[in-house]
User: Fold this.
Amino acid sequence: MRSSEGKSGTLSIVFQTGYYSEYMFFEIIDELRESWPALKLNYNKMPTTEQHRGLENGSIDIAIGLELPHWEEAGFKIKKLKKEETLIVVSNPHDPYLLNNPYYHSIPFESEYSDSYVCVTNPNNTNPVIKLFMDLIEDGEL
Assistant:
């Protein structure tokens, strides 16, 4: 266990609304809390437009969401995290076999954008806790 005396600060992480990427970060958030017990950790969910605004104005330190072109176009720093296969899950309520069957059909779905999760930061944000978080991402496997 690492010494954590005197470590304090604030870190604001915002996950994209509509996706469940936060589950990938439970271990990292636990490690942050263990390493920096005085750290004030704020996390929330919001749409990408609000994430974008928050990164620009400094109210958000880290945005987690899908890889979309506007992140790079805005000059943000992007760390690719994990690609998820997108599936459409269907059942046919009119098929007596499927009506009470716990199994559903899944169909791979190819879209213009992949479900690749990214961690986005503003390169002008000097919060030192961002580096700690990014180092934990590098050390762990998401």
In short: The beta strands are 8-16, 38-46, 62-66, 77-84, 87-90, 105-108, 115-121. The longest helix spans residues 128-139.
